[in-house]
């Protein structure tokens, strides 16, 4: 029952967002976009750029670009997928124009703890090592597959939303994410065989 109430609230917020767009209230619509999707945009930008400063700038640039382009939004897909598409393009542009950095991709750190809510030093070290390995392995994926994988599993976009964000068909979005996941699993298995574990 609580889940249904949550769905209704989200639906109501999305309906309010559509109402603001249709009314031409760009400022109100972008403010609501920031509230509803700012955190998700930030996680995607952090995962793609590997830099908190870059991620913050990408979120701001995404919202500014959305403000400027809101009147041209055609309703192809959701506003959420449209926003993530803008963020994805801004991240790609930022990555292309800067020198390749050691921490180009940075996944949001998984919360590993001892049950008390605070991470133990051992768990923290393990999580950091594991995140570093995954970042290195992600670099070896085809860029379009890596992007689809991050949008699906890091930003929790549906395949339909990924298709809109990347300007491709939904079947292609599914294929890219699946291919990326399969390749990442292969690389992780190979890494483990080569002695890439902490122990």
> What's the number of helices?
8
- CATH homologous superfamily classification of the largest domain: RNA polymerase sigma factor, region 2, helix turn helix motif
Largest sheet: none
Number of domains: 2
Head-to-tail CA distance between termini: 44 Å
The fold-level CATH name of the largest domain is Rna Polymerase Sigma Factor, Chain: A
Label the overall shape. globular
What layout of secondary structure does this protein have?
Blueprint: H1 2-22, H2 26-49, H3 52-69, H4 79-97, H5 121-138, H6 143-154, H7 159-166, H8 170-193
Helix pairs in contact: 1-2, 2-3, 2-4, 2-6, 3-4, 4-7, 6-8, 7-8
Descriptive terms for the model:
globular; disordered N terminus; Rna Polymerase Sigma Factor, Chain: A; Arc Repressor Mutant, subunit A; single chain; 199 residues
Explain what the structure shows.
- The protein has 199 residues and is mainly alpha-helical.
- It has two domains: 1-106, Rna Polymerase Sigma Factor, Chain: A (Orthogonal Bundle); 115-193, Winged helix-like DNA-binding domain superfamily/Winged helix DNA-binding domain (Arc Repressor Mutant, subunit A, Orthogonal Bundle), CATH 1.10.10.10.
- It contains eight helices and no strands.
- It has helices at residues 2-22, 26-49, 52-69, 79-97, 121-138, 143-154, 159-166, 170-193.
Short overview:
The protein is mainly alpha-helical.
